[in-house]
Amino acid sequence: MSVRLPFDKRIESLPSRWPIALLTLLLVPAFHRGLPAQSFGAPAAETPNAAAPTFGSSLFGAPSFGSQTLEGPSADDPSRGVSVGSLSGQPWNDSPMSFDPFVPFDSVVTDPTASDAPIERFKRGFFQRLDFGGGIVLPFEDDVTMSHAETGVAVAVPLGNLENILVVNPTYRIDFWSSNVTFELPTELHQAGVNLLYRRQWNDRWTTMVLVTPSIRSDFRESEPDIRYFGLGVVQYQWIPETLQVTAGAVFLGRDDLPPVLPAIGLVWTPTPLWNFDLMFPRPRIAYRLAKEGDRSETWAYVSGALGGNTWTTLRASGNEDELSARDYRAMFGIERVLKGGGGVFVETGYVFGRQIEYEIGGEKLDLSDGWMIQGGFRF
Asked: Other CB atoms closer than 10 Å to residue 124's CB: what's the count?
């Protein structure tokens, strides 16, 4: 039996909670070993943009989008297309771990020997990706330190052909809060859900995507956790093939601290194979390719902005349930290495400001100091 400290007791350190996250990370590979192999068959020959991958962080706690090599939603993420996120982990948050729905499955390298030929960012089979990641926000003042660990697995099912793809991406994330303030806060927050992405390519220029993410966001102490939803619908148009892509749509956040629906609009400009300008609201990102090894790997450096945070259902000390929201803004610099098939590793750091915590029903609000963040991850 575990013993939970009172909400207002100061937490000296986090190490005692990390075994919980590590155990979770060990369970996903066990699930992965049981996945069957399945061939997609021969994809259509199409040469995508050499846009930078979006491994990076997601915003609003959602999965990361990215641009289309096409990327985009994480999938929170993650770069070309709608960078609504590292889509990763939390629906539009700060996590870069989710499946990247904006990288088309028919992205085939027509000439692997060409120095600027983009690498394949998908696996030709049922299993697509296994992700692990984590990070920490260190406050400049001694108030609330926030860290997290997350994992996810992505599989893809072609619905008849590679122009119609259903991506299923279960994810789990645990957040640890270490508080030195006299404000009632939980010490652990969880999010478990699944990203369901449907992508349809109508022709060489038009693509539509719909993403729905049901999830439980809770401290797992209330009797019946609520299911929250994140939703995204976008239309993408290749204005200048392989150079300029325009995206328009809307996103439903499922958060209490922000408007329920926000626009997902912007463009992705790839003037040369070395530069990618992913100017998507609300997560812009500019990436520069540092190195390339044929069709085997690419290394990118990038700067980006993001809106972090989420909303969870929590149980107050009074015994009543409440909705707890956290929000911050981030300016980040990162480096990522992407391998053929979608694997790779990334690390990013940056300045976090505008940090705020608020209870929906109780109405209490706490402004926190700015801080510095570092996070990283890898995928297979």
From this structure: 17
Q: Residue 64: name the closest of 205, 169, 216 by CA.
A: 169
Dmax over Cα atoms in the chain, in whole Å?
65
Q: Describe the chain by its helix, strand, coil percentages, rounded to 5.
A: 5, 50, 45
User: Over the chain, what is the mean pLDDT?
Assistant: 76
pTM for this predicted structure: 0.73
CB atoms within 10 A of CB 82: 40
Task: Give residue limits of the domains in the chain.
Answer: 15-38+47-379
Q: pLDDT, tens digit, for every residue of 296-339?
A: 999 999 999 998 999 999 999 888 999 999 999 999 999 999 99
Other CB atoms within 10 A of residue 113 CB: 8
Q: How far is CA 272 from CA 17, 243, 247, 275, 349, in A?
A: 46, 8, 20, 6, 26
- Which residues is 287 bridged to in the sheet? 276, 302
Percentage of the residues of the chain whose pLDDT score is greater than 90: 52
